[in-house]
């Protein structure tokens, strides 16, 4: 029974055993490939396989006359090994090469071991990094660059390391300098624009609340929009403060600023979820029952729940300096954010949290669209609804529910620079979209506020509709 399982386990493992004399007069050369494993050089396949060059210094320093050299080539996809926690890069061809000479640990070599990883042209926006498996990192080990130098080439990358262990070439998705600088400039300018239109949105909602004091449902809707606009203002302000003050700040200041930025982002996500929840009540449940201090309870959730998450994340030391690097490892920007050691916190509190909100809000958006189309067909909504106006209202509702943030799930990878531009620009315009949506929806040219929730409900108490 153990035979087939063992064969499957060893399917991705290939080993070469060599007995090398201590009196070797030149470097030892070995070739390897992910498919054929390690072997002695074959000049007919020049450039098609990787190379391992062991310096003669290594053998001359050994006490025994003859030593055994073991070269192991592993396919980690088949073996399910060497999986680092929160690993962002990928291993070239899923290949890890292990080298041992004799029975002693070898380190501090003056003439380094050279491994040449053969590959074709790599995708743009990828940085190559020679790494080895360090058992001292974390509980199960992790990739480290200590003692290794990366020399990139067109058809291969040379890794020069001063010790022996398991090596690989890690491909990390990193932006080039020009793209990173352009994105930072777009994000900074967009934050200013978003803040301005968010202020306009809040002012517009306050004026409407004063005008329609007796319309309780309308006042609740506008109150939600005010809080969402406020969260956008705080988020953009936190980003501007972060990008301007993060360089040269004290560690505790950076932790506070990172926690503040995280809190503002979570508040923005939470208020989009509350907008979707309110739409659900209006369209599906028909908010006919009175909820005592309804808006106050929403504010407690919208501003309180993110604070609870940030306190827990801060208690485990998640915040600190986060560096944005270029392909040549030069630091473009330093931000106070969740550190690289706690990426799991980012995946859970940001990606996972927003993922759930996005799924719920898109379901609500589908219900809203379906109900609106039914009302238009049955004539429940009076007034001239032009196609462009309906499309604009739908697009505004789409942004109101935070759909533009969903592009962050597409920004991971080696070819995500165009998506990063789209993501940055659309989220910078989110405040503008919401403002235009509110103006079109709440300030019609005629006296009949077509599409307004309060007027539709008066026409048909049983209709589960809303476009606020």
UniProtKB/TrEMBL annotation:
GO MF term set: G protein-coupled receptor activity
GO cellular component: plasma membrane
Superkingdom of source: Eukaryota
GO BP terms in the entry: adenylate cyclase-activating G protein-coupled receptor signaling pathway; cell surface receptor signaling pathway
Alphabetized PROSITE patterns for the sequence: G_PROTEIN_RECEP_F2_4 (PS50261), GAIN_B (PS50221)
Residue ranges of the TM segments: 182-208, 220-240, 260-283, 295-316, 347-369, 390-413, 419-443
Subcellular location per the Swiss-Prot or TrEMBL entry: Cell membrane
Membrane topology: Multi-pass membrane protein
Keyword entries, A-Z: Cell membrane, Disulfide bond, G-protein coupled receptor, Glycoprotein, Membrane, Receptor, Signal, Transducer, Transmembrane, Transmembrane helix
Pfam families in the cross-refs: 7tm_2 (PF00002), GPS (PF01825)
G-protein coupled receptors family 2 profile domain sequence ranges: 187-442
Residue stretches making up the GAIN-B domain: 30-177
InterPro entries: GAIN_B, GAIN_dom_sf, GPCR_2-like_7TM, GPCR_2_secretin-like, GPR1/GPR3/GPR5, GPS
Protein name: AGRG3 protein
């Amino acid at each position: 029974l153990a035979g087939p399982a063992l064969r499957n386990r060893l399917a991705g493992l290939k080993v070469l055993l060599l007995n090398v004399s201590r009196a070797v007069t030149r470097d030892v050369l070995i070739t390897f490939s992910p498919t054929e494993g390690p072997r002695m050089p074959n000049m007919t396949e020049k450039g098609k396989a990787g190379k391992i060059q062991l310096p003669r210094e290594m053998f001359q320093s050994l006490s025994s006359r003859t030593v055994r050299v073991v070269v192991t080539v592993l396919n980690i996809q088949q073996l399910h090994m060497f999986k680092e926690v929160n690993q962002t890069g990928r291993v070239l061809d899923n290949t890890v090469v292990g080298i041992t000479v004799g029975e002693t640990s070898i380190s501090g070599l003056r003439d380094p071991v050279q491994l040449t990883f053969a590959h074709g042209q790599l995708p743009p926006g990828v940085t190559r990094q020679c790494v080895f498996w360090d058992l001292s990192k974390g509980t199960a080990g992790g990739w480290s660059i200590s003692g290794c130098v990366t020399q990139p080439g067109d058809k291969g990358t040379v890794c020069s390391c001063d010790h022996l262990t398991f090596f690989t070439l890690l491909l990390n998705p990193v932006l080039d300098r020009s793209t990173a600088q352009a994105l930072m400039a777009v994000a900074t300018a967009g934050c200013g624009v978003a803040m301005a239109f968010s202020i306009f949105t809040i002012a517009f909602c306050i004026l409407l609340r004063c005008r329609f004091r007796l319309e309780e449902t309308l006042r609740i809707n506008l109150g939600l929009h005010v809080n969402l606009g406020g969260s956008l203002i705080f988020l953009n302000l936190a980003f501007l403060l972060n990008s301007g003050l993060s360089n040269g700040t004290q560690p505790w200041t950076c932790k506070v600023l990172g926690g503040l930025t995280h809190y503002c982002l979570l508040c923005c996500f939470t208020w989009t979820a509350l907008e979707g929840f309110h739409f659900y009540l209006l369209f599906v449940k028909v908010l006919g029952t009175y909820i005592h201090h309804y808006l106050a309870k929403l504010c407690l959730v919208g501003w309180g729940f993110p604070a609870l998450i940030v306190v827990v994340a801060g208690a485990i030391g998640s915040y600190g300096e986060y560096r944005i690097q270029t392909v040549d490892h030069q630091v473009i920007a330093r931000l106070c954010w969740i550190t690289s050691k706690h990426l799991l916190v980012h995946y859970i509190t940001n990606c996972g949290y927003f993922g759930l909100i996005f799924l719920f809000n898109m379901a609500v958006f589908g219900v809203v669209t379906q109900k609106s189309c039914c009302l238009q067909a049955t004539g429940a909504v009076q007034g001239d609804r032009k196609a462009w106006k309906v499309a604009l209202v739908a697009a505004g509702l789409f942004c109101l529910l935070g759909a533009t943030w969903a592009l962050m799930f597409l920004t991971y990878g080696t070819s995500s620079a165009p998506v990063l531009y789209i993501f940055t620009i659309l989220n910078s315009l989110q405040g503008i979209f919401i403002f235009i949506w509110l103006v079109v929806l709440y300030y019609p040219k005629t006296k009949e506020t077509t599409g307004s929730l309060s007027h539709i409900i008066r026409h048909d108490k049983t209709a589960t509709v809303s476009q606020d």
